[in-house]
# Entry
Amino acid sequence: MTHTTARRSAVGIVSIGEPSDVAALAVNQKHTDIMELVADLGGDAAPYSSPLDECWEELNSDPDLTVGWEMRPPSAPPNIRGLSDAAAANAMVDWFQVNFEGPAESTPWDDGEYVYIWGGPCAAREELEEAFWTSASERALEVAVERIEEDGWQWAPAQSRMQPETSDALTTAKLRLMAVLRIWRARTKLYGPLEPQAEFNVCDVATLLRAYRQLQLQLAAKKE
# Structure
């Protein structure tokens, strides 16, 4: 018999009635990749079926689960006031190399030319002047630009500046809850039937239920 237990953690996660073997799997992160792989396999490719298979396609078709990406602006430039021209040039080169990269790194290539989908082509001098125009001397700028252009004349925003688009609370809750369901479904497809329990963030559950209740009230108001 499985004993029902509850525990509270510092991050607000509640686990109810989770068997010890499933709890062990939950913390065994090295299985995550294969779990997600199996979760996306067809029914015949995995050893077992999952209770979520029947509704999985419908759940997974929610457009909110498609995470978009956006390019962040360059990081704040360092303070170079009071530095020698050589030290200031070094700081500017370091800043530029963090925020920009050559197009060969990640920029798509189509019909014989680069397609700068995230901005560009960027010129070193223009970017440095915009970031350091109040603090860099002309000599420091010239030195920094000369060093940067030894590696190329055209640049693109660095992929390290990419980040997921900001989501509202409901979308964030959906994404986190679906991640839990995806891994649980994968475990059942690998190991067979498991107890239908997993760890959820209670705030995510509350957000989803609140949104559902608001939808109910809106539909009821329309009928009146």
About this structure: The two ends are 49 Å apart (CA to CA). The mean pLDDT is 78.
